[in-house]
Each structure stands twice: as structure tokens, then as C-alpha cells.
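[Automated response] Your request has been received and processed.

Submitted sequence:
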Amino acid sequence: MTGQVVTGQVALVEDDYTLVVNRGTESGVVPGMIFAVRSGSGPVITDPESGRELGRLSREKLRVRVFDVQPLFARAHTFVDTNDFHGLLGLPFFDRPREDVVMVDVGDGVELVVAEQDRITGTGG
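Generated structure:
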């Protein structure tokens, strides 16, 4: 990746396949960027020596591709990266079959995993 770090949170779950991220053009977000939606509510990790809390495990729930960007927010669809002709068209392919439902909540963290230029050149996450 190009070293660009963009993190934020889910600001709105618009429908079953669309969400709004609280970062937009003012944060460098452009259409085509791919974000991982992460759960921050995993188990607490405790240091066995000191008993000190080290943090929580964060698990990736799904990935979304930005298709609409405003100055302070971006809209993104869930998708499956097929790396084929359909992927070149940039069409959203829904990430999970209906029986494998992924719950996304307002406040879930998002992290840029592939910038648009990385997707075009084939580099990145």
C-alpha cells in the first residue's frame, strides 16, 4: 500500500449492503477505496505475567468498497473481490450469502486496506 492510513467508524447502516463511514474527501477518501469493517468487542487479552490488560482482539467482519464520497463521509457497498472481468467493472458483489449474516453496528471501526491506486496496480492488502 502507499502508506496512506485512514481509519474511522461506521456512522450509519443504510441498508443490508450499504453503510456510511465517518471519513470523506477531507480525510483523503476517494471512490474505489476498500475498507475492512472491524469488531472491537473481541475478548480481552491479559498479560499472564503482570495481569495487565493488553487490549482486545479485533476481528474483520467484512470489506466494503467506497462508491460515493462527500467532504465528511463516504458511502460503501459490501462486495466480493473476484479479480475477474466483473471486478474490473467495479460492480458490487454481495459479500455473504443470506444464511451467513454479518452484523455491522454503528461505531464499528473501519480501516483502509486497499487504496484505489493500489487496486489498479494490483498492490496492497
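Summary generated for your ticket: The chain has one domain: 7-121. The longest strand covers residues 59-69.
If you did not submit this request, please reply to this message.
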